[in-house]
Specification:
This protein is mainly α. It is about 80% helix and about 0% strand. About 20% of the residues are buried.
């Protein structure tokens, strides 16, 4: 059973990011497969995903707030957040490294942008998964 508002918010973020950015990658992957190799056509797709992410998360936070009382963030919440961030930041750093390598070999900007976005997404997912595990297992 999920107990604190902080833990519920982790689940809201995890589900929201998975659904919305997962959907973005499905659509953008389809566009890449069709040969769309400039970034401009991806901007409206990403804008819709960003707005959808805000709406889905807002709905999730409202539900989380209505299903329990909001407590102040305590030391355990801060420790869980810090540890998860610390243990997932290497994914984002790897993505930056691979994006720089992609620039060196002169990959098109659309690939570099999606490489960065993919690694950012993976880093956030890992962070949220680790937070959920730390809440269940304890820190």
């Amino acid at each position: 059973m999920i107990s604190s508002f902080e833990e519920k918010s982790v689940w809201v973020q995890l589900v929201s990011l998975t659904l919305v950015l997962g959907g973005y990658f499905v659509v953008s992957g389809s566009m890449l497969a069709k040969g769309v190799m400039v970034l401009v056509p991806y901007v409206p797709v990403f804008a819709v995903a960003a707005v959808a992410l805000v709406l889905v998360m807002a709905f999730g936070y409202i539900v989380a707030a209505l299903t329990g009382k909001r407590e102040k963030r305590d030391e355990r919440d801060r420790q869980i957040s810090w540890r998860a961030e610390s243990n997932s930041s290497w994914v984002l750093a790897s993505g930056v490294f691979f994006a720089l390598c992609a620039l060196v070999v002169q990959l098109q900007a659309v690939w570099v942008a999606h490489l960065l976005l993919c690694f950012w997404f993976a880093s956030e997912l890992l962070k949220l998964i680790l937070q959920a595990v730390y809440y269940r297992r304890g820190v």
